[in-house]
Amino acid sequence: MKVRSCLTVALLLTATNLPAADEAPTTPRAKNGLEGIWSVTSMQDNGQMLPASRVSLLRFVFSKERLTIRRLDEVIAETSYQADPAQEPAAIDLIYGDQPTSGIFRIDGDQLTICLGRSVNERPKRFASDADSASRVLIILQRGDLTPEGRPLFVIRADGTGLARLARLPKDMMTGSPDWSPDGTHIACDAWRLIHKETYVAAHILVIRADGTDVRDLGLGAMPSWSPDSRRIVFCRYRPNRGVWIMDADGSHRTLIDSAGWGCDWSPTGSEIVYSAYRPFPNLIVRDVDSGEQRALFEKKKYRMIYYNMSWSADAKFIAFKGVRSDGTEEIAVVSALGERHGFWVVLGKPRGGQPQVGWGAQVAGRKKQAGDESASSFPRILSLAHMVAWDGTAKSILVSMRTKTDQASQLYVVDPKGEQPPLRVPGQPADRKNFGMAWSPDAKRIVFASQMMKPKPKPAGKSGGQRRR
User: What pLDDT, in 10s, does the model give residues 313-339?
Assistant: First the structure.
């Protein structure tokens, strides 16, 4: 009687019932060609193709004598194996539990094909998957980890030293809008998974210890901001019930604050929050979350759009934000928390042409340009200006993310809050990655930021005019 291989059963159960997947470890490529990490691209059983959305999460990690089968980071099977490439076709024998599994394999460049037998005492003779032959399971794998890379969080000291990933999150996880708790112990951010075809609309709020441990999922939400006592979090939610919300730091007691509001930041000194809303034009709203009292900061329409991820000054007297003028000029500006008439100035501007137009040397709270002010024309042309700003806990620096003509990708820059000095690029950050979504530590000595690998640019066409193969 034919006995079905235990390893075959494990593989089939795995391929049809997959939970969430985490980041796979990397294994160096070895001389024998089989060792290393392989990603499953397809799997057939008895001639039937199994769903690609499920089997594509499987990873085969071969060491010298053992095979570990993972759902990315979750081990679902481990077995010893013996390979004999001298046979034709090359043979592979696996032991799962007490049951041996016989199979064959071949390597063609970076593609590995494995065929497993129908029973423990039958070795397939050809690479196929049939209902009436010894060849039952056919697996096609690609060398390497094919999991899409997301956008991890990094931490760096303000002086540019000590760059490191914050936490070991799933490789495909997209993170953004981090905020450091005032007590310095935790970092909150929003996150979603590429492997599940999610977008930012499905974002959850994560809370991570500042040392990168103890990752907690608080549920649906985005753009979190801590209360001064680190006991509550204000955040936004896309759906259901879009708007500005508040909850306890453990994710409980969620309450909708304003269904028309978006983007939010908690004052560092009290119970007020700020967010953007259309009332009856793009505006900034300051609201006391305890009393419900609120005020709009602009009396007349000044911007056609005011972005989310604004930031309070350390003394809670001013708010930095990004706005877009009617002519398309993008600005990083500062407004008094009491309203525009109590103080307003532009820190940095990017007109449509990209050349800095405002900032150092511009009018600052009514101050006219003075002799000796550095010319904005000496600063490289700005190609893009990200939406998020972050004011440090000493009120001495504002972080922005922008890409200038001299940058490979968007980089973090320190901007003078008064707009009197040119921006300074934060040293030590990855120059070849898009760095944005940032926050200061409470003591202004460290920065947490999201960083995304840049997509490779297509190679120029060859002399024949055709596109080169990658």
Answer: 999 999 999 999 999 999 999 999 999
Residues sharing a CB contact under 8 Å with residue 32, sequence separation 6 or more, in sequence order: 83, 85
Angle CA 181–185–191, to nearest 5: 60
Q: Give residue for tokens 């997959």.
A: 18
- Domains of the chain from N-terminus onward: 6-143 (2.40.128), 153-453 (2.120.10.30)
Task: Say which residue the tokens 């979750």 belong to.
Answer: 74
Classify burial at 286, counting beta carbons within 10 Å of its beta carbon; exposed 0-12, middle 13-18, buried 19 or more. buried
pTM value surpassing 0.70? yes
